[in-house]
């Protein structure tokens, strides 16, 4: 229920916010692309901070559950505001879009980082986590189904020709449902894994300590954003210099006596020396690029290439129904093949089905649906395996260092989802803008169709194949994961 509620926001924003901004709200594709990058990348910094706050939260309700309760009203409010079109000037509209989108992502961070970490403390068994992750993402795809499957029809029904009104009224409905689902989640979950207590300083001290390191987090994000968006000589030089400096700083940090480091610095060192987590960080970004590009272009693809805007909703429904089965089967398949092997197979097979879209004619609807559903069945396993394996990397950190920062480790999951989603959404808009697309000028549509085909096929598939190659380096085999689980169980029982 938690993921069903969260994905009323996440899947809705990911699938429809770009087309809402360009075709209803009235923002240009290039301005919307920059908006997506700036907000999503800055939001990644708040994910890290929220992970630290959640790890240091101590209440009678638990570490992570209270944040679900406290954040829900704000999440519902900004969900509505983000899809509201005020009658103001173009400049004021852009300012309003930044304010509401930042508000939505902040509220989502406060809710979803602790919620994601909750899975890591509901069970200490790695196979149970895989099955739990399957149920989680079955709920996620169900929530996404409600938004992506029915949003176009609901907008048409409530708007009666006025899409701005239709979006706003539809979000009233989804915000109410979101509130109910998140309250049920808060009331019906339990935190069971209690790691060994470690000496802690105050949260205020930890946040002040983190603030000293923020430039080393913000600068790489800024350099990557400029390099991706502008692709000029100065942005390339800034990117190269920044990454070189970051390498020097990281090496210096790792060479210091760890006993003299602050709590937040020790957390960072633990992450930087956690090879499974580092590989998963890259995997999360690449798989989010793969899925984000595909989902971000669907509304455009059906509206202009296929020529049937409402069919996008039917396509989303088909994908998400298949996704539910893919997520639920992941736990069983992971037992048979192992998580690492299953991850590689799902990436390769989904990429191959996706590449085939490049040669599909616009009128072959059955084949479009068949290939899309086949690719999505395997794509649904990717986030399910990813978040399950984040729990394994948290176990690895506790096993290796006797320290566990579940919230911080899982904040990486939401971090790469948001940064990957931001880059994916921006890439869709950058490619369309490169082909001359303007949502307010119908004469630009024909020349942009080739870009839509690439965004449905070769571009996302390239990220999936790169992720499959990276997964070959993942060190946690089934046997090693079982040993870590058994050792930790013995260690915790002796406390």
UniProtKB/TrEMBL annotation:
Ranges annotated as spanning the membrane: 13-39, 67-89, 95-115, 135-157, 169-189, 210-230, 236-254, 275-293, 313-330, 342-361, 367-387, 408-435, 455-474
Keywords: Membrane, Transmembrane, Transmembrane helix
Any matching Pfam family: MFS_2
Superkingdom as given in the UniProt entry: Bacteria
Domain Major facilitator superfamily (MFS) profile: 1-479
Signal peptide limits: none
Family: Belongs to the sodium:galactoside symporter (TC 2.A.2) family.
Protein's recorded name: Na+/melibiose symporter
Organism field: Pseudoalteromonas lipolytica
